[in-house]
Automatic annotation (TrEMBL):
Gene3D superfamilies membership: 1.10.1660.10
Alphabetical UniProt keywords: 2Fe-2S, DNA-binding, Iron, Iron-sulfur, Metal-binding, Transcription, Transcription regulation
Residues of the HTH merR-type domain: 10-78
Species for this entry: Streptomyces brasiliensis
PROSITE patterns according to UniProt: HTH_MERR_2
Name assigned to this protein: Redox-sensitive transcriptional activator SoxR
Length: 152
Protein backbone atom coordinates (compact mmCIF):
# COMPACT_ATOMS: atom_id res chain seq x y z
CA UNK A 1 0.00 0.00 0.00
CA UNK A 2 1.35 3.42 -0.91
CA UNK A 3 2.53 5.72 1.88
CA UNK A 4 0.91 9.13 2.19
CA UNK A 5 3.47 11.85 3.05
CA UNK A 6 2.97 13.29 6.57
CA UNK A 7 2.50 16.82 5.21
CA UNK A 8 -0.69 15.76 3.45
CA UNK A 9 -3.58 16.29 5.87
CA UNK A 10 -6.47 15.61 3.55
CA UNK A 11 -6.88 12.69 1.21
CA UNK A 12 -8.77 12.25 -2.01
CA UNK A 13 -11.02 9.23 -2.25
CA UNK A 14 -8.42 7.58 -4.52
CA UNK A 15 -5.65 8.11 -1.95
CA UNK A 16 -7.85 6.84 0.85
CA UNK A 17 -8.74 3.79 -1.22
CA UNK A 18 -5.14 3.05 -2.18
CA UNK A 19 -3.84 3.43 1.37
CA UNK A 20 -6.66 1.64 3.19
CA UNK A 21 -7.17 -1.14 0.66
CA UNK A 22 -10.91 -0.43 0.56
CA UNK A 23 -12.54 0.01 -2.84
CA UNK A 24 -13.76 3.50 -3.72
CA UNK A 25 -17.29 2.11 -3.87
CA UNK A 26 -16.89 0.73 -0.35
CA UNK A 27 -15.72 4.13 0.89
CA UNK A 28 -18.75 5.81 -0.68
CA UNK A 29 -20.91 3.16 0.95
CA UNK A 30 -19.30 3.74 4.36
CA UNK A 31 -19.92 7.44 3.94
CA UNK A 32 -23.56 6.90 2.99
CA UNK A 33 -23.94 4.87 6.19
CA UNK A 34 -22.36 7.56 8.33
CA UNK A 35 -19.21 5.57 9.18
CA UNK A 36 -16.86 8.14 7.66
CA UNK A 37 -17.35 11.71 6.50
CA UNK A 38 -15.72 14.12 4.11
CA UNK A 39 -15.86 17.75 3.13
CA UNK A 40 -16.45 18.90 -0.42
CA UNK A 41 -14.06 21.12 -2.33
CA UNK A 42 -15.23 24.01 -4.49
CA UNK A 43 -15.16 21.52 -7.36
CA UNK A 44 -17.44 19.16 -5.36
CA UNK A 45 -14.72 16.60 -4.75
CA UNK A 46 -14.52 14.69 -1.50
CA UNK A 47 -11.66 15.30 0.90
CA UNK A 48 -11.07 13.10 3.93
CA UNK A 49 -9.05 14.03 6.99
CA UNK A 50 -6.05 11.81 7.55
CA UNK A 51 -7.58 10.09 10.59
CA UNK A 52 -10.25 8.64 8.28
CA UNK A 53 -7.64 5.98 7.48
CA UNK A 54 -7.92 4.73 11.05
CA UNK A 55 -11.72 4.80 10.95
CA UNK A 56 -11.68 2.74 7.75
CA UNK A 57 -9.22 0.28 9.31
CA UNK A 58 -11.53 0.03 12.34
CA UNK A 59 -14.61 -0.61 10.17
CA UNK A 60 -12.85 -3.21 8.02
CA UNK A 61 -11.40 -5.07 11.01
CA UNK A 62 -14.81 -5.19 12.66
CA UNK A 63 -16.43 -6.36 9.42
CA UNK A 64 -13.87 -9.13 9.08
CA UNK A 65 -15.00 -10.64 12.35
CA UNK A 66 -18.61 -10.42 11.23
CA UNK A 67 -19.79 -7.34 13.14
CA UNK A 68 -22.75 -5.78 11.31
CA UNK A 69 -22.31 -2.24 9.97
CA UNK A 70 -25.17 -0.99 12.15
CA UNK A 71 -23.31 -2.20 15.26
CA UNK A 72 -20.07 -0.62 14.04
CA UNK A 73 -21.87 2.66 13.42
CA UNK A 74 -23.36 2.59 16.93
CA UNK A 75 -19.91 1.98 18.41
CA UNK A 76 -18.39 4.87 16.47
CA UNK A 77 -21.29 7.16 17.34
CA UNK A 78 -20.74 6.50 21.06
CA UNK A 79 -17.22 7.87 20.93
CA UNK A 80 -17.04 11.45 22.27
CA UNK A 81 -17.61 13.92 19.43
CA UNK A 82 -17.44 10.93 17.10
CA UNK A 83 -13.68 11.02 17.33
CA UNK A 84 -11.49 8.45 15.64
CA UNK A 85 -11.20 5.22 17.67
CA UNK A 86 -8.02 4.89 19.69
CA UNK A 87 -6.14 1.71 20.60
CA UNK A 88 -8.09 1.63 23.87
CA UNK A 89 -11.43 1.99 22.05
CA UNK A 90 -10.62 -0.93 19.80
CA UNK A 91 -9.48 -3.06 22.76
CA UNK A 92 -12.70 -2.34 24.68
CA UNK A 93 -15.06 -2.81 21.73
CA UNK A 94 -13.37 -5.92 20.39
CA UNK A 95 -13.57 -7.47 23.87
CA UNK A 96 -17.32 -6.82 23.97
CA UNK A 97 -17.76 -8.19 20.47
CA UNK A 98 -15.85 -11.36 21.31
CA UNK A 99 -18.73 -12.66 23.42
CA UNK A 100 -21.14 -12.12 20.54
CA UNK A 101 -18.70 -13.74 18.14
CA UNK A 102 -18.21 -16.77 20.44
CA UNK A 103 -21.99 -17.27 20.52
CA UNK A 104 -22.21 -17.15 16.75
CA UNK A 105 -19.34 -19.62 16.37
CA UNK A 106 -21.01 -21.99 18.82
CA UNK A 107 -24.27 -21.75 16.88
CA UNK A 108 -22.52 -22.36 13.53
CA UNK A 109 -20.63 -25.34 14.98
CA UNK A 110 -23.94 -26.84 16.13
CA UNK A 111 -25.45 -26.34 12.67
CA UNK A 112 -22.36 -27.84 11.00
CA UNK A 113 -22.52 -30.89 13.28
CA UNK A 114 -26.16 -31.45 12.37
CA UNK A 115 -25.62 -30.86 8.67
CA UNK A 116 -24.29 -34.42 8.37
CA UNK A 117 -27.81 -35.74 9.00
CA UNK A 118 -29.22 -33.48 6.29
CA UNK A 119 -26.75 -34.23 3.51
CA UNK A 120 -28.64 -36.14 0.86
CA UNK A 121 -31.89 -35.96 2.85
CA UNK A 122 -33.87 -32.90 1.73
CA UNK A 123 -36.89 -33.42 4.01
CA UNK A 124 -36.49 -30.02 5.79
CA UNK A 125 -38.96 -31.35 8.34
CA UNK A 126 -39.99 -28.93 11.07
CA UNK A 127 -40.18 -31.87 13.46
CA UNK A 128 -36.89 -33.62 12.88
CA UNK A 129 -34.57 -31.41 10.81
CA UNK A 130 -32.30 -29.28 12.96
CA UNK A 131 -31.43 -26.99 10.05
CA UNK A 132 -35.04 -26.36 9.20
CA UNK A 133 -35.99 -25.59 12.80
CA UNK A 134 -32.70 -25.13 14.67
CA UNK A 135 -34.13 -24.07 18.00
CA UNK A 136 -37.40 -25.97 17.73
CA UNK A 137 -38.91 -22.55 18.18
CA UNK A 138 -42.52 -23.65 17.98
CA UNK A 139 -42.41 -27.33 18.84
CA UNK A 140 -42.40 -26.84 22.60
CA UNK A 141 -45.38 -24.54 22.71
CA UNK A 142 -47.81 -26.31 20.44
CA UNK A 143 -47.94 -29.03 17.81
CA UNK A 144 -49.56 -28.72 14.41
CA UNK A 145 -49.63 -26.28 11.52
CA UNK A 146 -50.66 -23.16 13.38
CA UNK A 147 -48.32 -20.95 11.31
CA UNK A 148 -50.05 -21.85 8.08
CA UNK A 149 -53.03 -19.77 6.94
CA UNK A 150 -56.11 -21.24 8.64
CA UNK A 151 -53.93 -23.08 11.17
CA UNK A 152 -54.81 -23.18 14.87
S1 LIG B 1 -32.98 -32.10 5.55
FE1 LIG B 1 -33.75 -33.92 6.40
S2 LIG B 1 -33.04 -33.90 8.44
FE2 LIG B 1 -32.42 -31.99 7.62
Amino acid sequence: MPQIPEEIHELTVGQLSARSGAAVSALHFYESKGLISSRRTAGNQRRYTRDTLRRVAFVRAAQRVGIPLATIREALAELPEERTPTHEDWARLSEAWRTELDERIKHLNRLRDHLTDCIGCGCLSLESCVLSNPDDAFGQAQAGSRLLPGGR
